[in-house]
Write a structure and sequence with these properties.
The strands form eleven sheets. The chain has a 22-stranded antiparallel β-barrel. The chain has a five-stranded mixed sheet with strand order 11-16-17-14-15, with no helix packed on it. The termini are far apart. By secondary structure, the protein is mainly β.
Amino acid sequence: MIRILLKNSLPILLLLISTQLFAQGLKGKVTDSTGMAIPGATVQVVGAKIGTSSDGNGLYALKFPAAGAYKIRISFTGYQIAEVAVQIDNTIKTMDFALQDAKELLSDVVVIGSRSTPRTNIESVVPVDLISTKDVKVFAQTDLTQILNFVAPSFSSNRQTVSDGTDHIDPASLRGLGPDQVLVLVNGKRRHTTALVNINGTFGRGSVGTDLNSIPVSAIERIEVLRDGAAAQYGSDAIAGVINIVLKKVTPYSFSTSFGQSSSNALGRDFSDGRTFQVDFSKGWAFKNDKGFINFAAQYLQRGYTNRGGLDTRPLMYSANPTKGPAETEAAFQARFASLKAADDARAAANGLDRNNMRVGNSDAKNGGGFLNGQFNFGKTTQLYYAAGFTHKTGSAAGFYRLPTQTSQIDLSIYPNGFLPFIDTKINDYSFSVGMRAKLLHDWDLDISNTSGENTIAFNINNTVNASLPTGTSPTSFYAGELLFRQNTSNLDLSKKHLFDGGFLTSLNTAFGAEFRIDNYQIKEGELLSYSNGGRLIGTSPTASGAQVFPGFKPSNALDKSRHNVGAYADFEAEFGPRVTLEAAGRYENYSDFGSNFSYKFTGKVKLFGDVSIRGAYATGFRAPSLHQQYFNNESTQFVGTNATQVLTVNNANPIVAQFGVGALKPEISKSGSLGLAGKIAKTFTFTIDAYNIDISDRIVFSSQYARERSGNVLVPTGVVNQILNTVDPTAQINSVQFFTNAITTNTAGIDVVLTNRFNLGAKSSLILSVAGNVNKTVVRSIQGSDKIESDPTLKAKLFDRLERSRFESSVPKNKLNITATYNLNKLSFVARTVRFGEVTYLNAIDPNIAANGLPTQLDQTFAPKWVTDFSVSYAASKTWSVTVGANNIFDVYPDKLYIDPRDNQNNLSGNAASNYSGGLDNTSNGRFLYPRAVSQFGFNGRYVYGKIACTF
């Protein structure tokens, strides 16, 4: 009977309890200082697991389990955190909150770098930069790499030129390390890399990075840059640090559009090019009854090409260079040459063949994409979250101009005046992530997710020929093939924060997790005529196979390779009272292609006084060799004398590489340490100062070309490279070979400083000043090839020459300083920013300081530091509309020019004999590259002016 009564009365009892639990509450609206609603603001009860977010109208509602005194914390990125004490009784109270604009990036909350409670970055145990897109959209930069290059001092990235696929995907560096040594996350989940491996003469040669520009800026709420080794927490690639891109959640309707172009004077000319049009949209909707949200953002960007190329200084454009006859006097030869040159110049003028025949600058580009980010709440303890993105990019980049004199690479019946070939790309990028967060028994938090991503790059070669085909039969456009990289990552994470009353240990956050990842890399062959040889001869000389500028991938290059890895980690973070925080993390990973690795990390922070803390970390890390580095291969035709020979990029499974004693690639291993101070003084001044040291062994390099030894046009039988290549190529069709190998040990040391202060100048005006700087130095400590390479000086010298060394040590600025001032007055905002890009140095592959080499010493060149200044003015016409006008590089600053040898600089116009001309005595490629492209400082496009209109409602 009692059991029956209990059974019947239990629902009524639960209803009474539920009614009692939710009889008291708090509701209201969150706005900014102007009264505009702030959707997506976090409203949390301090010390209790009660919280919510404001909806699309800024409205919120909280329910409390009992009456009493509580403290409410309200926060939103870009605004100062507010805390208010409230007294809750058995009613529903109303309380509105107005947040003050922080304009102070260092006070915002970050989630990266710790699996415990999110912290402000001056409270974080390791250095983290926080960049809100709200504070960078007033500037000219429209893509993510360029935004970070001008905002984050330890980050470096510049657009490349005349470098094949790298013209379309910007390589980036964090703390002076390579593009593949920084891990990119989106909403805390690993993002896939690009399908492109950089094999041309640019910074990051031989590496594979992430295409940050495939993520629309309009979709981003904030960017967190963790400047510390984190492989023990996040796995491979995090040697230099981690960039976490946090997507927008509940936001108002937002539209913006901008237009700008270069307005510059350089090289004695005025430039108005690089016209850029951008439009974006975003909106986040909150579901009713705190059921979650969905946000959609999209962006379209169209950028025109720029050209800062110089004049082609080769003496003759149509005619072969004459040679002096055995009985001919010098005067007669000079006269004959002058007559030939006059006729050649007249022919060029009649046909419109301009000596400004290159495009040296930004490629043409169109970039359109969108991102979806959302969450659905099942009750109070379970959330389903998801994110999906798609970007389609097209680009057109020029190669080297083919002159009519280059008969082995041209069909004069199609292009009698030569041609400028183009590498046109179609890049598609897909990503999808879905996961579930839930509260388990005993307050354990579960996060299970799966993230997939794919990047494809299709190459179409236009305005070109296959010169080996019968005269007049070659197409002028070719499909050259496609690269693909696909990645799928599954994660399981468990965490719990244990709180202790009294005693030595205040709290302990425990986190465990596992990851399973599958990588897939593919090379797809091009059409037949893009790589084939049709057998055409010029006299008795052969012609080049395949499409000029980019021969297609052959069937022998095509491949489809996959691998998988399993990882597991443990992370413990303990707080010992309010002043001391210690953390330890370890991660084990096993890869199907090279084996296992264990990384660990120890961090600590001690609060010295007030809000000032000392912090430090020591970590080991690793970077798994990419599938691209393990398997990429291609083949191109080059000429030695009149002999057509092959240059191979081969993977490590090729028997040629085995002949050099080089085996399978190993992971790069790092040891890093950091020590810093961070804090806030007098409520408005914040600072972080962090020093770091990173040692990396077994770094993977892309070797220089190992070419067959020749005496004139005759092979040297005893040459060591000849002997190696003859074992697999006895007919000597292969001329040179290059490959990837673990070969160097490096040390990178530096210091990061970020200072920010806010000055309140009145009720409606304020001034924010920030100074951020980075100083770093990378040194190659040792070069270690295989036993066979080490045993032969010729092989050793070619493995990693002076030029390759300079790419690692001095091709990105050794220091960078960013000074930004923002002055707000009523509806006006003035922003001035100046960035000092430090020096970079280029070293010639052959040492010009050795007199026997017969080269000018100026071939080694250091490019001086430069200041680049931006300025913008914004006017908020209303709460809805704002207008911005401004200029990037307002003082039209360019890098130092490349050294031009006198023999290269004058003879094309002077009429001197061809025998006096030498284009190999400088790095201008016959006068056409006047600014450095092998080092990465800040680009060379000059002043850019723009206007922008934004609408938010």
